[in-house]
Amino acid sequence: MNMDEALKYIHDVSWLGTIPGLERELELLDRIGNPHRGMKYIHVAGTNGKGSTAAMLASILRKAGYRTGLYTSPYIIRFNERIQVDGEQIPDADVCELTEYIQPHAEAMADHPSEFEIVTAIGFEYFKRQKCDIVVLEVGMGGEWDATNVIEDNEAAVIVNIGLDHTEVLGDTIEKIALTKSGVVKKGCPCVIYRQEKSVEDVFRQVCAKMDAPFFPADFDSLRPTYSGLDGQRFDWGDMVDIHLPLLGDHQLKNAANVLSAVKVISGTVSLSLVNAIESAPVLVATMPTLMVLPSSSSV
Q1: pLDDT tens digits for 45-72?
Q2: Global confidence as pTM
Q3: Contacts (Cβ under 8 Å, ≥6 apart) of 127
Q4: Residues with Cβ < 8 Å from 265, sequence gap 6 or more?
Q5: What HEC string does the chain produce?
Q6: Do 103 and 97 touch, CB atoms closer than 8 A?
Q7: pLDDT at residue 252 in the model
Q8: Which of 116, 132, 87, 104 is closest to 13 using CA atoms?
Q9: Quick check: 280 pLDDT over 70?
Q10: Which domains are delineated in the chain?
Q11: Label partner for 287 (CA 20 to 30 A): which of 92, 106, 231, 247?
Q12: Strand order through the sheet with 215-217
């Protein structure tokens, strides 16, 4: 199987008429040995800013010295962008081999998996073979019934801004959509949320309470913009000063603050030296396609 053949098979799978649920993804993964088990995950859900948030988190984890998987969608230029390890896209040869490996298992199922479910299975299998220490997993659509939500727990759920999207599937109000996306919150696992409408935050706060999951609103109060120009923005956050973000817009500053808030939480939940990592010199936090440069620290 070559790359054209692999992509044709993946993209030719029809999602029309597919009933939301995790059964197909779970069956497919079971047929290939449940590669999603035994890895650590940070699950990123929401509407606006998932991709850049996931990429920033993955970059910090990588800088901290952990072999880091990154699963995102959709891609911008090449399919391979969707599955990365330590900033390197999955090679064509691996896409072909994994598609050929998974195809007979998918074809043997009475209820054929969708395109996204097949790609998600490819991602899990690749991350397992690459022996990733941790994977940043971006939700495709929604949360509760998204194929990525087959993971049994996560080190943290990171929620970005919630908006009205896919209302025919997720719900016709922002609160209903928030409830669907809150399905990524796992029992006892912390949830970090981008600050937004109180009604949306209340949905997550209530779900976290039911799941005994610590609830952490992102620290926007410590965000202090200092400069904005054609080359991007600079800001201080807490004790950190002169952080450069080559992206414009108040929402991008808030996305960065959400990431930094999550880093502090994750540092305590998975015993990662992330705070040291983001304070070392220099740290590049990748967005797509630009970089956020965190300041040097003489104390490290």
Answers
A1: 999 999 889 988 888 888 888 899 999 9
A2: 0.88
A3: 35, 39, 69, 71, 83, 85, 135
A4: 156, 190, 192, 214, 216
A5: CCHHHHHHHHHHCCCCCCCCCCHHHHHHHHHCCCCCCCCEEEEEECCECHHHHHHHHHHHHHHCCCCEEEECCCCCCCHHHHEEECCEECCHHHHHHHHHHHHHHHHCCCCCCCHHHHHHHHHHHHHHHCCCCEEEEECCCCCCCCHHHHCCCCCEEEECECCCCCHHHHCCCHHHHHHHHHHHCCCCCCEEECCCCHHHHHHHHHHHHHCCCCEEECCCCCEEEEEEECCEEEEEECCEEEEEECCCCHHHHHHHHHHHHHHHHHHHHCCCCHHHHHHCCCEEEECCCCEEEECCCCCC
A6: no
A7: 84
A8: 116
A9: no
A10: 36-92+123-292 (3.40.1190.10)
A11: 92
A12: 88-89, 83-85, 68-71, 134-138, 40-45, 156-159, 191-193, 215-217
Q: How far apart are CA 108 and CA 213, in angstroms?
A: 38
Least confident of 25-34, 196-205, 211-220, 241-250: 241-250
How far is Cα 60 from Cα 292, in angstroms, rounded to an integer?
A: 11
Q: What are the tokens at 291?
A: 């970089």
Q: Which two tokens stand for residue 44?
A: 């990123």
Distance of alpha carbon 162 from alpha carbon 179, whole angstroms: 10
